[in-house]
């Protein structure tokens, strides 16, 4: 699964919130790999973009990566360089993970009906 993103820090928030924001992005991207039992290539921009004149803009954190079907990091780029990542993708491993650790296999889809309703409609 290819998952392009353009996410980063507002420069004034980086020191206080940066580590947690970056960690949350990593966790979500790795979670897509685990939940779907697939390899995920999470591509992210680098650099500073001042989209509105007079603001500090957004500092994109880069760090694109490739994760395996159990969330393991197979390759990762730096935060500040354009790079091409290459990782070996073992489709037999992917199939094994999907067969032997099917993350969504035991979900109760019969209980999902109410999550499609808006609270205001109840």
Secondary structure: elements and pairs:
Elements: E1 2-5, E2 8-9, H1 14-36, E3 40-44, E4 46-49, E5 58-61, E6 65-67, E7 73-76, H2 91-100
Parallel strand pairs: 1-3
Antiparallel strand pairs: 2-5, 3-6, 4-5, 6-7
Polypeptide structure, described:
The chain has 122 residues and is α+β, with helices and mostly antiparallel strands. The chain has two helices and seven strands. A four-stranded mixed beta sheet has the order 1-3-6-7, covered by helices on one side. A hairpin with an 8-residue loop joins strand 4 (46-49) and strand 5 (58-61). The longest helix is centred in the N-terminal third of the chain and has 23 residues, at 14-36. It is flat, with a radius of gyration of 18 Å. 15% of the residues are buried.
Provide a short characterization of the protein structure.
By secondary structure, this protein is α+β, with helices and mostly antiparallel strands. The protein contains two helices and seven strands. The strands form two sheets. A four-stranded mixed β-sheet has the order 1-3-6-7, covered by helices on one side.
What labels describe this entry?
single chain, four-stranded mixed β-sheet, three-stranded antiparallel β-sheet, 2 helices, flat
| Helix content, binned percent | 25-40%
Low-confidence residue ranges? none
Number of helices: 2
Classification by helices and strands: alpha+beta
Q: What does the average pLDDT come to?
A: 90
Give the beta-strand count: 7
Termini separation comes to 36 Å
